[in-house]
Amino acid sequence: MAEPLDPQGIFDLVELHLLGSHPTLTGQELADAVGIPLDLAKQRWRSLGFTSVGDDEVAFTEADLNALRLTQRMHDLGMIDPDDEAALIRTLGRAFARLAEWQITMLARTVGSQPDLDLDSLGAVMNEVTPVIEEVQNYIWRRHTLSAASRLLLAPSVDGDEDGEGAFTAIGFADIVGYTRQTRSLTQGDLASLVEHFEARAQEIITLHGGRIIK
Question: Helix crossing, 85-113 with 119-154: angle to 10°?
Fold first, then answer.
């Protein structure tokens, strides 16, 4: 039987695969290269949901630099309102953080279920899977963007208001009855299953009737 994969080795492989290189830049170098204050770069980093790093810590890659440049480019072009920037970045961070947790859990299951898997084989699997995931994510984003455009542009207006500013909107709230009581008697796995079933059922009903889940 092959030796179990070293966690650090797996992490290094994942880092190289996803970011293209290992860290070579500090936060100060990153900010200087983009031409923005370090405090602004740190604010954007934290808004994405990442933990703070020391100003002189080598923690960033060329991929991070490119992302920060693109973000600043959108800001310079007026695509991002300064008042909305932090909220937008936080929203992106939360959305992708949850997705990333699920994806890395699936990777861990793959590693755990194949004791003979080596780093080369794992790398080959990631090379096959990552482009597929990226393509699907891109499609879903485009579809949701089209759906948002439909709600904004084509939603029926109130009292025949032709400018569309009075679109009909209703907000509802759903919760699990007796959730606190149930958490005291359920195992972690059963609790996760309960929440997953609730979310899936709620989404099914809401989308069936033309609604959408906000949070």
Answer: 140
